[in-house]
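agent> Task received from the user: take the single chain below, predict its 3D structure, and emit structure tokens. No templates, no multimer pairing.
agent> Plan: (1) validate residues, (2) run structure prediction, (3) serialize to tokens, (4) report one or two observations.
agent> Step 1 OK, no nonstandard residues flagged.
tool_call: predict_structure(input=
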Amino acid sequence: MALDRLGNLFIADTGDNSIRKVDANGIITTVAVDSETSIGFQPNGVAVDGAGDLFVADDEFQLVLEVTNYGPSLVLDAVTAANAGNYDVVVTSPFGSVTSSVVTLTVTVPLSLLINGGSGNSVILQATGAPGQTYVLESASSLVAPAVWQPVYTNVANASGAWSFTNAALSAQPSAFYRLAVP
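)
tool_result: status=success, residues=183
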């Protein structure tokens, strides 16, 4: 168990493979949990530093995982890329209201990737993401740490969000690993 500076108690719930938080009002919430689709998570202990970052001792992989405290967050439902932009946030309570400085709302559209074998020694990578978003294709010859990712191709997705790259020189590389990044 660990106590943060705000009086929140964090508990490593080994039996349920989860981390629980008990706030100063006694409300219990789940901070992190293992599910059937995850890679595995068996918390054995927790610690909190002065910045509010949570550290979890994981017995499954013999690791210490860090959960960084990014501060307050706001969940918005049913937003699309068209809602991105600058806004004022007004927080209201029975005691009055506070207006923030201008905040920027960024909407990230999930990226889908399709890999097709091209003709001869080529491969075609096709992605669908946010229209007008710039994507950088990076390549590494090995995933052994530390993997060295090199930019290969930069392009902007078209009006429907489509983006593609064709590597016609596969025979020059014994293997290649790709990832898309947003600059």
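agent> Step 4: summary for the user.
The longest strand covers residues 134-140.
agent> Done.
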